Amino acid sequence: MSYCRFSCDDGKSDVYVYEIAAGWVTHVASHRIVGRRVPIGGPHDGETFTDHSAGACLRRLLNLSSDGYHVPAHALKALAEEVEEPPT
Q1: Is 14 exposed, middle or buried (0-12, 13-18, 19+ CB in 10 A)?
Q2: Number of domains, the chain
Q3: Could you give the CA distance from residue 71 to residue 16 in angstroms, rounded to a whole number?
Q4: Which domain holds residue 37?
Q5: Cα-flanking dihedrals φ and ψ of residue 60, to 5°?
Q6: Which of 17, 78, 7 is nearest to 51 (CA)?
Q7: For the segment 1-28, what is each residue's pLDDT rounded down to a tens digit?
Q8: Cβ–Cβ contacts within 10 Å for residue 13, how many?
């Protein structure tokens, strides 16, 4: 399941987040489109993270957002809902 893709928010998303058997994967973009492709210049450009819980992934996305990366609000909301209501 994908929480967000680079194409979300009209291509403004700096993260691609999805769930796999091993956990929640977050790919951070190294460039963004601002008339042309330019380096983002953040501390995690081009990195990939795997978290073992929805809560850990949510914390990671909040940290990436505070580092200046564009994280779509709907991805944060979906993960927060998953943390509040874990599957039975």
Answers
A1: buried
A2: 1
A3: 9
A4: 2-84
A5: -60, -45
A6: 17
A7: 799 999 999 999 999 999 999 999 999 9
A8: 21
pTM above 0.85, yes or no: yes
Q: Do the beta carbons of residue 27 and residue 43 sit within 8 Å? A: no
Read off the pLDDT of residues 52-73 as tens digits, 9 standing for 90 and up.
Answer: 999 999 999 999 999 999 999 9
Tokens (6 digits) for 66: 């505070």
At 57, list the tokens: 């992934």
**How open is the CA angle 54-63-13, to the nearest 5 degrees?**
80
Q: What DSSP line would sit under the chain, residue for residue?
A: -EEE-TTHHHHT--EEEEEETTEEEEEE-SEEESSSEEE---TTTT-EEEESSHHHHHHHHHHHHHTT----HHHHHHHHHHHHS---
